[in-house]
Known about the structure:
The protein is an alpha/beta fold.
Amino acid sequence: xxxxxxxLKGLQSLLTSSVPQCLICGKHRQASSQLPSICxxxxxxxxxxVSPRCLKCGRHVGCPDCNRGGETSPIICNRxxxxxxxxxxxxxxxxxxxxxxxxxxxxxxxLDRAYLILKEEREKEQRVQRSSPHSTIxxxxxxxxxxxxxxxxxxxxxxxxxxxxxxxxRGFNQAERLADVVSQRRGIPQLPLLVRKHHTGKQSFKGRAERLADxxxxxxxxxxxxxxxxNWLGAMKPMDRPLQIIIIDDIYTTGSTLxxxxxxxxQMTEAYRYDVEIYSLTWARS
Length: 286
Ligand SMILES: [Zn+2]
Ligand SMILES: [Zn+2]
């Protein structure tokens, strides 16, 4: 190697070391400003759901499940950060099944964007209700709050729990890690209110009816929360509105997991005579 090529090699390594390595493609490229752990190219390939087609479940395409009707849900609405395509499947695989924990900050940041979209939507609705001449009694409290200029904010984040065997296998609860990011960024507390009673098997191999039946009894109030939850409720400032709780998960497929969790949370809050509004937020929507 002559002096010139040594010099060029040195310069090249200096340049690549100053440009961060992308977590997804592994290349040294300019980092995305919104998601600093990945490059601009990988960030551009993210299928963000900015305005969902189905306002109920947050799906980006037409939604036969919600249109079917009949199925009552304790969840007001779901919002997801991205559409679950093959690129996102690979990303989730790295995180959830290959245990690459460096993805939790990235996916958490992406989830945070969905939180901001939900928050913005709720605030917009408050403004619409305030300006509506046909206010109902149920919107009275919301009007009062909107008039006082208080913006919409969730009171609590609840991650969907994993079973003990899943936790042992994976070493972490992916939903809890994602909720951590939103919790820290937005200053919203997180409580693991629920436990998963039995492992329901790989959901993706099951049909819709089978999944729904499976989920019915899959979740329960966590024994560790029997004292903690009423203490937390008691420490809340008096509110002129229902509690606003968001359930967090990595992916929304049929919504049966989230609905089953919401039912338990509803029972828990009603047991202490609190009204509750339950929302859900997932990283991806299939
Ligand atoms: Zn990249
Ligand atoms: Zn829908």
